[in-house]
Amino acid sequence: MLRPIVASTALGAVVGSVLAAGVLFVRADSPAGAVSIDNFTFTPQTLTVRAGTTVTWTNRDDIPHTVASASNAFAKSKALDTDDSYSFTFTTPGTYQYFCYIHPRMVGSIVVEATTGSNATQ
Ligand SMILES: [Cu+2]
């Protein structure tokens, strides 16, 4: 009767280490950018990243905010409560203006630069 339990525990350990390896791979391979939302302001207001970067917005304000592309380049976030975050991976070079659709005067932009091959700095 113990055998299935042991087998399932072993499988759990294998799946766990595969997931851990996956996280390490993603971290090493895809750069990250961060924008914080505080006091009705996106900071930095303009963030420059390389193509392939995952940008994460985190709401540090005590009221909900959102992130929406001015040109519908990416799906808009839901309303982010305090400490909620929203991420999008920018793969195409360009300038992406965005705003908070609850407070449309809150604007920011992400500038995505082309990767320059193997000499690109990490
Ligand atoms: Cu807002």
Quick synopsis:
By secondary structure, the protein is an alpha/beta fold. The chain is built from 1 helix and 8 strands, in the order αββββββββ. It binds copper (II) ion.
What does this structure look like?
This protein is of the alpha/beta class and 122 residues long. It has two domains: 1-30; 31-115, Immunoglobulin-like (Sandwich), CATH 2.60.40.420. It contains one helix and eight strands. The longest helix has 27 residues, at 3-29. The termini are far apart. Copper (II) ion (CU) is lined by residues 65, 100, 102-103, 106. Copper (II) ion (CU) binds at residues 65, 100, 102-103, 106.
Write the layout of secondary structure elements.
Elements: H1 3-29, E1 32-38, E2 41-43, E3 46-50, E4 53-59, E5 68-69, E6 85-90, E7 94-99, E8 107-113
Parallel strand pairs: 1-4, 3-8
Antiparallel strand pairs: 1-2, 4-6, 5-7, 7-8
The structure holds copper (II) ion.
Please count the beta strands (DSSP E, at least 2 residues each): 8
CATH superfamily of the largest domain: Cupredoxins -  blue copper proteins
Q: Estimate the helix proportion, in percent.
A: 10-25%
Using the coordinates shown, work out and report the CATH topology of the largest domain: Immunoglobulin-like
Helix and strand pattern: HEEEEEEEE
Work out the oligomeric state of the chains in this entry: single chain
Task: Tell me the strand order in the biggest sheet.
Answer: 2-1-4-6
| Alpha-beta content class | alpha/beta
Count of helical stretches: 1
Q: Which architecture of the largest domain would the CATH scheme give at its second level?
A: Sandwich
- CATH level-1 class of the largest domain: Mainly Beta
Q: Tell me, rounded to a whole number, the average pLDDT.
A: 83
Task: Supply the number of structural domains.
Answer: 2
Uncertain residue segments: 1-28
